[in-house]
Amino acid sequence: MLPRERVAKTLAYEEPDLVPWGEHSIDYNIYEIALGRKTWVHAKFTEQKGLWDGKRDEIVACYKRDIPDLTDALGFDIITVGQNPPAGYHPEPLEQVDHETYRSGKHLYRISATTGQLMPYKIDTEGYEAPTVEQIREQIAHLEANPPKKPEDSCWEVMRHVVRERKGTHWINSCVGGMGFPVTGPTDEIRYLNMALHPELLGPVAELEAKSCMATLEWYAEEGCDSVMPCADLGSSTGLFGNPRILEEHVEHWWKAYIDKAHSLGLKVVKHCCGNIWEALPAMCRAGFDGYEGIQASGTMDMKRLKEEYGGKIVLWGGIWHEHLILGTPEDIEEDARYSIRWGAPGGGFILGSSHSLAVGCKPENLMKMKECRLKYGTYPIEVSGLTSQV
Question: How crowded is residue 384: how many other Cβ atoms within 10 Å of its Cβ?
């Protein structure tokens, strides 16, 4: 069975020959482990500096080479690919403050010691005021009168290459922004405070975000994607970022409108969201999401309970603990695979993946064990016993 056929059957809640495998994000170290060479793909600050140094074409060529090669090396069924910088892209470097800190205006950024990514460190919020309802409405009116233009052809170079090379055999997925809690502001702290301090903004902000996201759906259908993945998280490991009534009252109907439009274009919609999101799942299912990816077992999202309560309502994509890939052992990975496949895979509707991503710090032996266990335990009919609890 071809990988794309395997994914299509799984999304239809039918049993394929083998549990599909895919990831929404894969960091550079995974490419280097599997391919045995350096890469620019998702290379964090190294990639950013490469763009500053005028190496856009070299970076894009690397993406075009390494994404298909990694797909073959690990046996993925799903390829996640997005836009790339346009031809001639050569941004001015930020001002370097010290060996790990950079400045842009009044904002400071620092290279993460954990991931190597340039991250916001101190964002200047002096003088910030929350927008008014009228200002948000003006943005909505402007969006409706002036829909965003599709980025130029050179921004689709990597995606078009992957679609041309692999669309016939693999499922093509693309991460897109938005579709979370209706937040606005320059920092996470301010964004979530605004939800509580300015409830009058919830409806207008949700509408603006949804209409902005919906305006781009045609682009991904035109480029040959099979699914899109809105990536705004909904919660932390202890619970949702806000009251679930906010999602039910202000977001759910926009989720449905977005999904209905995507379906009319032939796209499936899979929601990425980490954390403990039990309280959001009813709204996600009512809205019609085809799948839920980023299932965080360490945030109480137990595969057995998920399958019992939501099997047949939403495809479950996850199973291997992100934490175990980085801090655990091959034995931990095998236990994760056995448990998630045993409870998630029967009857279809299950895709194997990390509980977040294949990220910096993942141990080579754990990555290879994940690949091995997918083949060992994921062949249908599923025959895995034991392991009645995990979380």
Answer: 17
